[in-house]
Amino acid sequence: MGAIQALRGTRDILPEEVCYWQSVEATARDVFSRAVYQEIRPPIFEQTALFERGIGEATDVVGKEMYTFTDRGDRSITLRPEFTAGVVRAYIENKLFAQGGVQRLWYIGPAFRYERPQAGRQRQFHQIGMELIGSSDPRADVEVIALATDLLQSLGLKSLKLDLNSVGTGEDRQNYRSALVEYLTPYQEELDPDSRDRLTRNPLRILDSKDKRTQEIVKDAPNLLDYLGDTSQKHFEQVQQLLKDLGIAYQINPRLVRGLDYYTHTAFEIQSDDLGAQATVCGGGRYDGLVEQLGGASTPAVGWALGMERLILLLQQLQMASPSHPDFYVISKGDRAQNSALILTQKLRALGFRVEFDLSGSAFGKQFKRADRSNATACLVLGEAEIESGTVKLKWMATQEEDAIAQSQLLAMSDELRQRMVR
Ligand code: ATP
Ligand code: MG
């Protein structure tokens, strides 16, 4: 019988890669906890209607990419294609607003979209993100952008670009939409099929079409920024000034849009030149209309989501993490020696050391080779002779320096040993 393989668009994160994931997770926890963001863990599947309302039926995600199925109770269920809708649902359902002030939330976990798999694009992928709910202040926009750049910088990624735009208010966009449709309609036949379809459903999304001819046409289209009202203009200027004050470089990209009515003001993306076609690592913005759209009271909010696969591709290019290695590698041969080696191993682990126990009972030479490969800082050796004398041989791998010491003494000198561990 043939072996079963992982589904297309999914992949195993193997031990050699997992150190990168752990390093991103640990850094995110550290950066976010310093900003006093709380982690939230919404369910992986939700009612399909949540995403239809929370992402919008005119988007690619809802229109083409969702994993939707009917469960045994005849409900329409969808695997989350992103987190924001679920987080906002949780905010409303659990009355997190009742705690007063703003809610600062972050999340991490898998999301699912039916897409054509390629480097940095999968069907099960992972996101880290944050939502700041309850403030319309431009400082909130800048706080979340600054925390995204903090995270990326703490991971050692420096050559990333921040694209910034404002999509104004719903009213600003209404005016702009008319102007855009008026400009594009004469070119209708030349647009790519997706864009032609969007001309009536969601014309703003045409601005970020990847099609060459469409891009040429769009180049001379009216500029969204010229349609911002006074309030929007002021918000956008404040965001830019604060970014400058914080020393965060950005460039304005008037074609960076989110097409739906509940998006307002700031939109941004963080990109890397080192990722090929899937250049966007992080995307976000303000969504003042979403909480209301999902049945809550009108509440402003801003947030972003970052694709972990793309981030990890970048870290791997820079070789920014290395797997952990043991402090001690424990070698033993003979029944009694192997038993007492297991006991010693457990005692050292209880003292906080990372200890790998060789189970093979094979020749000492073979076990020493494996100890070398494990990159352990030191080896502990137990044979018949050590059992007779109640000792253990301690060998430092870097210097080959070797000592026989009583087992009880080894445990008593744990502080001194800890100092010598290379981590
Ligand atoms: P793209 O234009 O690359 O499809 P998007 O606009 O659909 O991105 P968002 O919904 O803004 O993406 O999600 C935020 C981030 O999640 C993206 O910037 C990207 O890093 C990551 N992401 C989105 N879809 C995938 C996917 N299928 N596989 C891996 N990462 C993804
Ligand atoms: Mg997409």
From TrEMBL:
One MF annotation (Gene Ontology) recorded for this entry: histidine-tRNA ligase activity
Enzyme Commission code(s) on record: 6.1.1.21
Short name of any one Pfam family annotated for the protein: tRNA-synt_His
GO biological process, one term: histidyl-tRNA aminoacylation
Binding residues annotated for L-histidine, in chain numbering: E82, F83, T84, R113, Q127, E131, R258, Y262, Y263
InterPro entries: aa-tRNA-synth_II, aa-tRNA-synth_II/BPL/LPL, Anticodon-bd, Anticodon-bd_dom_sf, His-tRNA-ligase, HisRS-like_core, HisRS/HisZ, HisRS_anticodon
Catalytic class of the enzyme: ligase
Reactions it catalyzes: tRNA(His) + L-histidine + ATP = L-histidyl-tRNA(His) + AMP + diphosphate + H(+)
Protein name from the UniProt record: Histidine--tRNA ligase
Originating organism: Lusitaniella coriacea LEGE 07157
Gene name tied to this protein: hisS
